[in-house]
Amino acid sequence: MKQFLFLFVFALTAPFVQSQENLPTDYLTKEFHQGRREAFRALMPANSVAVVFSYPEKVFSKDINYNYHPNPDMYYLTGYKEPDAILVLFKEPQGTEKYNEVLFVRERNASRETWTGRRLGIEGAKSKLGFTTVYNGKDFNAFAIDFAKFDKVIYDEIPTDVAENNSPDNLYALLKSFKSKAGITTANEASTDLFDKITNSLREIKTPEELVLMRKTVKLSCVAHNEVMKAVGPDMSENEADGIHAYIHRHYGAEGEGYPPIVGAGANGCILHYGDNNATKIDNQLLLMDVGSEYHGYSADVTRTIPANGKFTEEQKAIYQIVYDAQEEVFKICKEGTPIQDLNKKAKEVITAGLIKLGIITDPKDVRIYYPHGCSHFLGLDVHDKGNYMGTLKENMILTVEPGIYIPANSKCDKKWWNIGVRIEDDILMLKDSYENLSADSPRKWQDIEALAKQKSTFNDMKFPKI
Ligand SMILES: [Mn+2]
User: Fold this and answer.
1) What is the mean pLDDT of residues 236-247?
2) Is 249 a catalytic residue?
3) Which of 1, 275, 327, 329 is the most buried (most CB within 10 A)?
4) Whole-model pTM over 0.85
5) What distance in angstroms lies between residue 302's CA and the mean position of ligand 1's atoms?
């Protein structure tokens, strides 16, 4: 009750918090987002309307939420990064005002903003994002829109994990209102398919503005990988190696990581999406690090596998070399026109031959035991980005090339191979006749990794009090 009174008094007197200073200057521009909406509209069928929702907020613990992460499609089309918003795009101009898009945003609220942060509000959405028709979310229900008059209502999967909330400007109320206005009772597959088709075809090709951010996020992630290669030793914990990545990402202005970091030593490196990162010592094992930063929404996805003591054993080297060779062979077909499915076929081919040669498998079908995932995915606003996986490579697509071999203990092969897990992952920009490896700044050859490991890291000199 006390807190309520405090809030109430505050609300009467509080001015809006001051606008923010010293922000990064390289965010995507409003012209970029406007351009993406134009491109989206161009792919909409005649007499259609598209609706995009923000992601719900997520509970971290009791009354504390996770840091909010916007829906990448909403961010791509608007630049709006707050929760509780809806974007409505029309193929043809509507009403006497001839508007072809409406954005519903969170209402400004002086007292809430002193607790949970600044809000862009209607004016901000107009001046900073370039919208002309903007309303507060609470006005969506009363907004006159007859979805029945359109031939097609295009929308993404409606989030089902939204906590019930009685506030009229909360996402829960906005979704309820949309479903009732559009007469939606079950998931409309046809509509979400069209939404995916449009967003896949836009987001799979990176614009020059996006390429600037992609180059940055991958480059700074490489610096982080290289610094860990120099700093790591058998006594370092997985968590500390993870922390070095995180520090360097933030040093270069990244907001965080594009996905939960995978930092696994030995047996842990054989777990594909290992995320505990809690082994207190890496010991004399291989350390697999699949870590990439998120910079202004764009994710890197880089994996390096390194020996904690700076030198690969003969067995580790033999497995590493197969994965390296698989990458090299896949790179050769990275250019416009290659069917995307061929990347994995090629990687599988090289790994199969390599494992047979080492006597680890005899039947080629068994390659799936040690290489159970695909070789490539699109990369961008989502780490597993949107794109047409059944299509062919096109100029300015970015995909990962990430073969791997994982041999957990008790595998049916000579035990000298046990607990070796190797993945090498690079971020590849496709060109007309070739490719550019955006993550080439971090060494991939075992010889180059061993050479870099000999160098000293700034982190080796950091001394902290014993506690
Ligand atoms: Mn990946």
Assistant:
1) 98
2) no
3) 327
4) yes
5) 7
Q: Which of 406, 426, 427, 444 is catalytic?
A: 406
Q: What is the predicted pLDDT for the residue at 2? A: 45
Ligand 1 centre to CA of 301 (Å) is 5
Is 11 a residue whose pLDDT tops 70? no
Asked if the structure places residue 175 within a domain, the reply is yes
Q: Give the number of domains in the chain.
A: 2
- Output the CA 377–ligand 1 centroid distance in Å: 7
423 belongs to the catalytic site: yes
- Note the pLDDT tens digit of each residue in 40-55: 999 999 999 999 999 9
Q: Name the H helices within 86-161.
A: 110-116, 121-127
Last residue of some domain: 188, 203, 218? 203
Is 204 considered catalytic here? no
pLDDT digits (tens, 9 = 90+) for 301-347: 999 999 999 999 999 999 999 999 999 999 999 999 999 999 999 99
Looking at 203, 230, 260, the residue that finishes a domain is: 203
Distance 383 CA to ligand 1 centre (A): 7
Q: Which residues fall within 8 angstroms of residue 148, CB to CB, at 6 or more apart?
A: 183
Residue 14: inside a domain: no
Average pLDDT, the chain: 94
Q: What three-state secondary structure class fits 241?
A: helix
Please indicate whether residue 402 is annotated as part of the active site. Answer: yes
Instruction: Assess contact for 426 and 437: CB atoms under 8 A.
Output: yes
Which pLDDT score is estimated for 1? Answer: 43
State yes or no: is 113 an active-site residue: no
325 as an active site residue: the answer is no
- Would you say residue 1 lies in a domain? no
- The contacts of residue 171 (CB under 8 Å, 6+ apart) are 53, 54, 56, 57, 83, 84, 159, 162, 165
**Catalytic site includes residue 169:** no
153 CB neighbour count, 10 Å cutoff: 21
- The one catalytic residue in 21, 63, 161, 433 is 63
pLDDT tens, 156-172? 988 888 989 889 889 99
